[in-house]
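Course assignment 3, question 2. Fill in each field.
Student: A.L.
Task: Predict the tertiary structure for the chain below.
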Amino acid sequence: MRAAPLLLALASCLAPAAAGAWCRTTTCAAQPDPTMCPACGSPIAWQRPCTALRVDARVLPPTLTAAAFHGHVADAARAWSSFACAGGGRGPAFAMTVLDDLNARVGYFEGAPNVNTVTFRDHWSDDAFHAPDAAAITIVTFTSAGAFIVDADTELNLRAPANPRGFVFATDGSAAAADLPTIVTHELGHTQGLAHSAERAAVMWYSAGRGELRRTPTDDDRAGLCAIYPPRVTEACAPDPGLLTYGGDGLSCAAAPRGGKGGGWGLLALAALAGVGRRRRRAS
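Answer field:
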């Protein structure tokens, strides 16, 4: 299942925050207002205390090297773990590690090894979930039994001759481009189970303009992540879920179950930071 644009509305349903403006993504598939947190579905989260990301650098903007792309993704991952939760002195009990780059398939493959990817696309799929005015989307796959995340993939909508409605990305705060670190940091919030926040300054706010920088999680963003993964002493965790497999019947979050069965896993397509001055639209 794919996504709605981020300047737009979120295509998933969000759980209400205990405090502040942050929201959690849930297994529910409706959210009429990206600044509100409907109380439906089960919140999703990673079951393990760590996960790994792989950068796929086969497609890049002309001004960005593979090493620089990898560095920005690694910086965004660190931004989500380099703080202490309120009252405990420890950070969230979850960490993302960016491993060596890998050319990997995007998506979840049942019964096979899976890799969490961050990649540019110079061809944007022509379907209801790859909205043309989305700068990026994150697709999260979760188990329907426990609402545990098993895979997350981020796609960045790059302008190219074959994709003229894509976006120009920059890393220098250019007023004419989407800020890559801002968008990647936002997307990695979705990867961990956060949804959009109603706080305008938050990384997880649902839209961004050209040149707008929101690269560091705010107190609201941090409170949300600490609520999902409360600080605790955890055992060492090998951060590569690509070796894990999960078998089960498919269940799409907004479509009929595959094969007529109602269990196994589900997909959520999460809106990315996008819009950048473009017209708003809402996911179907």
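Instructor remarks: The chain has one domain: 14-271. The domain at 14-271 is CATH 3.40.390.10 (Collagenase (Catalytic Domain)).
Grade: pending
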